[in-house]
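$ ./design --mode recover --in tokens.txt
reading tokens...
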């Protein structure tokens, strides 16, 4: 075992040593599927085959110029934590073997501190922002039942009747979650946003709340960092509307929560702690491995109403429910460990530096785009995403051609903003520097000339 692990360690070190300079999205063709052999080949042969067949087509998503999807990398400490997660192979779901749960709770406390949340916010690790949003909406669904004297967890979503979910620019995972929860995608009601913004228009939201007042309480999904332009809703202003209208406030802060780490941007998440539930994705800007996110809520009692799992081999709910009673999963790896390692290794200051460097890189690329003839910014660079398009004939086909021309140097993802096809460059990797930003800008300019 030590020899085999050393072999894999050396191979991984070699990969990491070259990842910053390899093709970001390789042009090599995908290998043909192979049949499963009857006889095992052994770990060394498996490693050799993986390196020969599959590594040449894998993207450098852990590298500094992979700017699609808001994808972080993996800090050295997080990588160590992830390796040890598999080494110890803990299923952190039960107090009958509870050390993993205690480590997770300690880590949740550190995250609360990182994002400026109070102890009233109870957190749990989940797989990603989609699951975090879905868990928050599931708790919101149970709250709606509480207001109407029923329990959807016991009687089904149909016991609620019609449900309204209001949002200005909800992420696509929100209607997906509504579908999974039996509330339906059509429960989503789009509220007008502010002119030229993705932030919800507060008077329009109040009008929508007043208009549906006769239907009873609803759910409001606010954004702390939208996908296209990292726009922020007025969280404190939205929360204040609860004084006149009953609603559950869920905040999608998948990567925008990290604005709290920067003194110059912390005001963007003012009021986050007022939310009834919160989504934060960790495999984005915290730079821990996929898959990892956290969800917070002020109503863990409703959370256990939804997710409790009655079985003789599980502990009772009690005052501190086991993790098996808090999320859709029973089997759950100790994904908190990678987060524990990176937070302990680098602290608040280390992660603040990563956040502020990414913001600086995004602004530098925004300035570069603004100065490149043939490109135009579609929105100000508010945090870590640059949203831009072609100055002339910005079709999806031409933008795809542009990205293909520069795929060896950088990876950007397509989007549409206000009906205009566009590209997004999202900065969240701990390794990205101004030098990388300059290379992306140069690649854009060179690709333009080939269109």
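writing sequence...
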């Amino acid at each position: 075992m030590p020899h085999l692990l050393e072999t894999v360690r050396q191979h991984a070190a070699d990969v990491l040593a070259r990842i910053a300079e390899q093709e970001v999205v390789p042009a090599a063709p995908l290998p043909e599927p192979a049949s499963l052999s009857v006889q095992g080949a052994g770990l060394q042969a498996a490693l050799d085959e993986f390196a020969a067949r599959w590594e040449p087509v894998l993207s450098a998503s852990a590298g500094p110029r992979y700017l699609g999807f808001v994808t972080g990398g993996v800090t050295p400490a997080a990588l160590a934590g992830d390796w040890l997660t598999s080494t110890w192979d803990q299923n952190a779901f039960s107090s009958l073997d509870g050390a993993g749960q205690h480590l997770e709770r300690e880590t949740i406390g550190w995250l609360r501190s990182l994002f400026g949340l109070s102890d009233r916010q109870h957190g749990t690790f989940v797989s990603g922002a989609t699951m975090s949003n879905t868990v928050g909406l599931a708790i919101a669904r149970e709250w709606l039942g509480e207001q109407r004297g029923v329990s959807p967890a016991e009687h089904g979503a149909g016991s609620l009747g019609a449900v309204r979910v209001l949002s200005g620019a909800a992420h696509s995972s929100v209607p997906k979650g509504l579908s999974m929860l039996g509330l339906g995608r059509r429960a989503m009601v789009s509220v007008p946003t502010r002119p030229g913004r993705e932030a919800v228009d507060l008077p329009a939201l109040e009008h929508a709340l007043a208009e549906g007042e006769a239907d009873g309480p609803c759910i409001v999904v606010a954004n702390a960092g939208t996908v296209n332009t990292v726009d922020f809703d007025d969280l404190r202003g939205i929360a204040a509307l609860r004084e006149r209208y009953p609603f559950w406030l869920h905040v999608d802060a998948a990567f925008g929560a990290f604005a709290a780490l920067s003194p110059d941007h912390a005001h963007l998440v003012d009021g986050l702690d007022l939310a009834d539930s919160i989504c934060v994705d960790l495999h984005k800007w915290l730079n821990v491995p996929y898959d990892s996110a956290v969800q917070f809520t002020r109503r863990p009692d409703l959370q256990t109403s939804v997710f409790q799992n009655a079985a003789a081999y599980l502990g009772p709910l009690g005052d501190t429910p086991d993790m098996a009673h808090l999320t859709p999963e029973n089997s759950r790896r100790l994904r908190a460990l990678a987060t524990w390692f990176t937070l302990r290794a680098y602290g608040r200051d280390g992660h603040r530096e990563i956040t502020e460097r990414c913001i600086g890189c995004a602004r530098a690329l925004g300035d570069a785009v603004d100065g490149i003839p043939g490109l135009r910014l579609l929105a100000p660079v508010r945090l870590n995403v640059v949203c831009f398009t072609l100055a002339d004939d910005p079709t999806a086909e031409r933008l795809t051609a542009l990205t293909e021309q520069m795929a060896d140097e950088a990876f950007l993802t397509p989007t549409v903003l206000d009906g205009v096809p566009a590209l997004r460059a999202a900065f969240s990797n701990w390794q990205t520097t101004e030098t990388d930003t300059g290379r992306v800008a140069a690649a854009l300019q060179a690709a333009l000339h080939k269109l």
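exit 0
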